[in-house]
Amino acid sequence: MSKRNETIFVCAECGFESPKWMGQCVCGAWNSFYEERVKRGGDSGDSRRKSAGAVSAFRGANKAAPLSAVTSGTADRIDTGIGELNRVLGGGLTKGTLTLIAGEPGIGKSTLILQAAASVCRQGLPVLYVSGEESAEQIRMRADRVAGGGGGSIPDGLLVLSETDIDAVSEAVAETNPAFLIIDSIQTMHTDDIASSAGGVSQIRACTDILMRIGKGRGIPIFIVAHVTKAGDLAGPKIIEHLVDCVLAFSGERSRDFRLLTASKNRFGTTSEVGAFEMREEGLAEIADLSGCLLDGPLGQTEGTIATAFYEGTRPLLMEIQALTAANTGGGFPRRAAIGVENARLSMILAVLEKKARLDLSAADVYVNVVGGVRPEGTAADLAVALAIWSSARSAVIPAGTIAVGEIGLAGEIRSVRGADKLAAEAAKLGFTAFILPKANAAKIKAPAGLGLTGVSDIREAIALLSL
Q1: Which residues contact 371 (CB under 8 A, 6 or more apart)?
Q2: Do 352 and 264 share a structural domain?
Q3: Any domain includes 350
């Protein structure tokens, strides 16, 4: 039977297929349909059935069973040899899972994955690195620098394949039977069953679906490298994020050596963990003491600058908050700009300062910056942001060694935060001497040696405490 092309329309948000274009999908998304041409026929060689037995194994292993009869336990994981990567993944590579890692070009995605691949190989496990962007020689040059540097020779179990045909990749997986599979990148992969060019929405969706079946059917953890758009969003259809088990974002400024790895989705761990790295000549080095990296000791006496602390996953983090207020001389509406703090949260804090602390900023531009590029989770940094803004507006200096945490309510009250005892211990370890925190937290914890605790109940009390 000869092949023929059939045109269908697929929703990029939920994957719903329709024989005709629809303005609104059944999932509620508008104008999310894209055209996809699929080859039909008995000898079409459907890639889903050509995945070297992965699909049949995947389908045959799944049968309906009572939930009470399902064994519950810890997922089987593989150590990547990189502590910060293990932290973000939830303890290591989980067998049979797909992990999508995205980031700007040149940020270090391939370097990080290659280091993890070399470490897995040194445990005696074979790894297949598939590259659709670089030749084997280019990968070897990077491996000489990062995998071989400081760790001996390149492991023999690290296999490399320069290929863009996902069906050829499936055959290579069947031949080599790797314990870890890397696809760099998904935008370069294609299958002949989709009549469109590589990198298109339909191709990315189809190739990801094939990789999911390979990983689930063979129990192989798969890392998929993806590109990002100019806006920093993941390139390709949104459905990819629903198919994979973990979505990682590798970020940082290429002009600086500091890199952050965060998870926006993780079915086998928390999404609040952060991994920190430093780009060096020999590759990426872990930063175990992230607070020490974000803060060069206690802050000195400067206007508009104060330290704060919050919980990121399972560890406390300390960072610097900077604020600047300036007269709006250009006319028009005053500007409000924030890096690391949500604009809606900043607007609320400014409204509380105006109403409860009588601070008039209606004719001033306000800028707030979280140093280091880490975005604080939750609302623990509210009090520090408010004090930094007040300090800059009043040209007052915050005493050296001061740190502040607490959530600000609409009535100006300072609400408690979680883990205040561990935040205080981390502040004392880094040499801070004064800790301003909610009164409810101060009543429950013991002050560490060298650190004075002062509880406050509202924003006016916190400002008066600093004699600003």
Answers
A1: 294, 319, 320, 321, 322
A2: no
A3: yes
- Model's pTM, two decimal places? 0.76
- For residues 282 and 218, membership in a common domain is answered with yes
Q: How many domains does the chain have?
A: 3
Quote the tokens at residue 68.
Answer: 């009470």
pLDDT tens per residue across span 25-42:
888 888 877 777 666 554
CB atoms within 10 A of CB 461: 16
- Identify whether residues 115 and 185 lie together within a single domain: yes
The CATH number that applies at residue 96 is 3.40.50.300
Full domain range(s) for residue 355: 293-465
Confidence tier at 48 by pLDDT (50, 70, 90):
very low
